[in-house]
Amino acid sequence: MSDSLIAWIEGAAEPAVGFTNSSKSTAVYLAAYRSAAIGDRVDFPAPIEEGFALDVVAKRQA
User: What does the alpha-carbon distance between residue 8 and residue 32 come to, in Å, rounded to a whole number?
Assistant: First the structure.
């Protein structure tokens, strides 16, 4: 993994664990938390909200 990161810095293609792919998967799991928090589906791109949706879900469980 570090070899591909160094190669990317030196001009090679972005590694599979680069920002482009990780930002997409992050958007998916944050949308899943938001969906659970509001009890409804979330369209993409998901809206940016104040706070963290997982906190809302945790408070409901308490």
Answer: 31
